[in-house]
Design goal:
Elements (H helix, E strand, L loop, with lengths): L15 H6 L8 E7 L2 E6 L13 H5 L7 H12 L1
Antiparallel strand pairs: 1-2
Length: about 80
């Protein structure tokens, strides 16, 4: 069993043995879920990947009419030069 004390600012420290066994790193988000009046569950919040594959759908929202050809991009760019 690992104990921790709540500070005046509402902060707690996660014991080192738990941080190491769960491979927790600074900056990771934790989610607190109330189970009962005297119990809560802490889970490691898994954020969605922000890699190149994760942003593929983002461009679709900006241009719902579908992908554009290089020719149409160049035409739009050249119109801005005039």
């Amino acid at each position: 069993m690992n104990d921790s004390t709540l500070t005046e600012r509402g902060q707690i420290s996660i014991p080192a043995s738990l941080r190491k066994s769960m491979n927790l790193k600074p900056g990771q988000k934790l989610r607190f879920t109330e189970i009962s009046e005297s119990e809560f569950r802490v889970t490691v919040y898994q954020e969605k990947s922000v890699g190149p594959v994760a942003v593929l759908g983002y461009a679709r929202r900006l241009r719902p009419d579908g992908p554009r050809t290089t020719t149409s991009w160049m035409k739009e760019l050249r119109e801005g030069e005039a």
